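Take a specimen:
=====
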Amino acid sequence: MPLCLLDKNIRKQRRKSVKKPEAMLVSSCMEYLSIRGAQVIRNNTGLLFIKDKNGKSRAIKTGSPGSPDLIAFLPEGRVLCIECKSKKGKLSDLQKAFIEKMRKNKHEVVVIRSLEDLMEVV
């Protein structure tokens, strides 16, 4: 394999293995909450494509659009919904609506941009 192709392949692998800031924040928050004794649910939302035994593909929706990244059940009985955003990340309209509805129903929801933000509320 020519060296230039090899270099491109290595760069692609590196790009895939580097976590995005939001994903890193989610991982850090999950670890911190676990250390604090919380049970944490990672709430992924999106589509999964699977093939049946005949090779036919179908999409399966996961999660609720706009729902928070994490749901933490803290040891003192508190339930905290956490939306993780990078420093420049913006809430989608669906996320804003979901958060507004949760807060209207007296649920605790926070939007954090750093682990320190989470440490201030937990």
Notes: Strands lie at 39-42, 46-51, 57-62, 70-73, 79-84, 108-112. The chain has one domain: 19-121.
